[in-house]
Write a structure and sequence with these properties.
Blueprint lengths: L3 E9 L5 E10 L3 E5 L6 H9 L6 E6 L3 E4 L5 H7 L2 H5 L2 H11 L5 H7 L5 H12 L14 H13 L5 E5 L7 H13 L3 E5 L3 H4 L4 E6 L2 E5 L3 H53 L4 H39 L19 E9 L8 E6 L3 E5 L6 H9 L6 E6 L3 E4 L12 H8 L5 H10 L16 H12 L7 E5 L7 H13 L3 E5 L3 H6 L4 E4 L3
Parallel strand pairs: 3-7, 3-8, 5-6, 6-7, 12-16, 12-17, 14-15, 15-16
Antiparallel strand pairs: 1-2, 1-4, 8-9, 10-11, 10-13
Keywords: ATP-binding, Nucleotide-binding, Repeat
Protein name: ABC-F family ATP-binding cassette domain-containing protein
GO molecular function, one term: ATP binding
Amino acid sequence: MTLLQAQSLTVFLPHGEPLFSDVSLTLDRETTALVGRNGSGKSVLAALLSGARQPDEGRVIRHSNIAYLPQLTVQSDLSALSSVAQALGVDGCLQALQRIAAGSCDTADFEAVGDQWDLPAALSRQLAELGLPSDPGQSCTSLSGGELTRLRLWLCFRSDAELLILDEPSNHLDRHGREWLSQQITCFQGGILLISHDQSLLKNADRIVELSHTGLACYGTDFVQYRQQKHHESQLLATRLSKAKQQISAINRQHQRSEEKAQRRAAAGKRDRHTGSQSTLLLDYQKNAAESAASSRKHQQHQQLEHARQQLKLLQEKVDTAKPLSFSTNSANKRSARLLTITELGLHRGQLPAISRTVWYGDKIHLRGSNGTGKSTLLKTLLGDMPVKSGEIHRHGPLCYLEQHFSLFDLQASLIDNLTRLCSAYTAAELRTLAACMGFRRERAGQQMSTLSGGERMRLAMLVVSHQQQEGVLLLDEPDNHLDLDGKSMMAQALSEHKGSFILVSHDQDFVDACGVSQHWDLSR
């Protein structure tokens, strides 16, 4: 059964260049994985399919109810969820049960409860299975990133939607959360469009489609097979490009040789005419025949050359024009060997005992623990954005925080304006060079921040926090979220080569290892 049809979708960037064009897709009762580079337009396509955004050209025909989990969550979305119980639609029943327990005999309360007398116990079990706080009255805004993601995913899976559009659903989830998500995807009876760079999650897909500058291409069901096929296609394209260039060179060489022969024949004719060894009539005939043959030959060679150049152009259009990204961290002056001292620190949120630690220059720390233990709360407390419950924090150097929702950016301002504000020690020309190294070249530097994908915002956020004027401690809250495989590799290499200190939160152990982490703070104990 067809659940959705997208026909010839086109979206233009603010400066007029198409983000993608003439994209068509059909979604059925299967799990379709949508992959592609950061900035290729996957999240925009998801918004078009869900109805959250309209295409500049084309149309979407929906034959089913759709539940949509966007990649980026804005504050208004969080506030709209209110409490956990209200988000789940059981707040009225719970309040009625409380009034009945207090002695209410109101018929409306009994009607509100219906046959859900065991709701508190059942809800408690469900929240425990989700790894959420046991209090259903807790505000959604107080949940950790991973807890909130699980809640929003649960709302999608338990809705009446036949088609789920999930944009990077494993972001913020710990290992248990990702296992739970994989199980939910496997058990879901409808269709799923899964946008992800998580290789373990992509194993659940029935098919893989890739969005690139050439449009949508469909691949098999296995992610490893997809990567192998992509590699094979890349090698084949490189071979065809090389042969096309060789053909053009061969035509040019043949043309040069023909010209040289014609010139030698013309010179010989002039000598014969000068010496009188041949009749003028014969020489004129030979000259006319040579000129006619030369004209025909040039026309044929011109056609061959134009055909070869056209073939080369078609092949070059298939090549991904995205240049390799480069990224390095700033080498600011080292101010102090000891950068941070934590003494018997107690937090207002989370489940952590008192913490005592010291961060020295060059320490590369992995902060690990399951969702809800208080990792983000610890980073915000170290920064000073949240109050200390008990204990002390002594900051001997500056701290720079990269958090999960990119609040450091003004989304209504341009990319270059944000960089100018946040990296004031650099000139406009230097910032444009840094932006270009991250893939934002020429007119893209003036693009509005709100139009960038999650992966693009993350790359810029990492550039900002790593190019501050003074050396301090980088507080990195899941910086690998939203990034494609190339982006992750690039960021990991930069952090590995970073001379200063950082405290890193990530649930991707491969990424953590590649960052050159020197010590772990385990918050699960």
